[in-house]
Automatic annotation (TrEMBL):
InterPro entries: Amidase/PGRP_sf, Amidase_domain, PGRP, PGRP_domain_met/bac
The name this protein goes by in its record: Peptidoglycan recognition protein family domain-containing protein
Start and end residues of each Peptidoglycan recognition protein family domain: 1-79
UniProt KW keywords: Immunity, Innate immunity
SMART domains associated with the record: PGRP
Family under the similarity heading: Belongs to the N-acetylmuramoyl-L-alanine amidase 2 family.
Lineage, top ranks: Eukaryota, Metazoa, Ecdysozoa, Arthropoda, Hexapoda
Keyword Metal-binding: no
GO terms of biological process kind: innate immune response; peptidoglycan catabolic process
Length: 133
């Protein structure tokens, strides 16, 4: 289950909250999982959803739940793509343009199926989740 979900109307729904991640085995102590509600291969999340994510991440930094140098990445780059299609190819293209996108995979197309990914060296276990995607 994700920490937070963002609806098409831009509202943010709490899943597991800030302190507990449990949706990407092996990464849970390093990430904050935020999902858009919808399917985004052909269409991107709404502008309301995208703005909500940006504001939410800034809020996370302000309240000390995210480091100010956090990175974002699609779940599909961390685990096998068929198991996690997120964030969808449309939004993945947008996400890759963000200044804080962690592109350890150095891919330009679809998220690859990666069997053994490791957290970035700068990652540290969270004290309320240190990173986000």
């Amino acid at each position: 289950m994700y920490n937070f979900l963002i609806g098409g109307d831009g509202l943010i729904y709490e899943g597991r909250g800030w302190l507990v991640a449990q949706h990407l085995y092996g990464w849970d102590s390093f990430i904050l999982g935020v999902a858009f509600i919808g399917h985004f291969d052909d269409e991107c999340p709404t502008l309301l959803q995208q703005a909500a994510l940006t504001n939410f991440l800034q809020f996370g930094v302000q309240i000390g739940r995210l480091f100010d140098n956090y990175s974002v990445i699609g779940a599909c780059a961390l685990i096998d793509a068929p198991a996690s299609p997120g964030p969808g190819q449309c939004f993945l293209a947008e996400l890759r343009s963000w200044h804080n996108y962690w592109d350890d995979a150095h891919t330009n197309g679809a998220c690859p199926a990666l069997a053994a990914r490791r957290p970035p060296q700068a990652a540290q276990p969270h004290g309320g989740n240190a990173g986000a995607y």
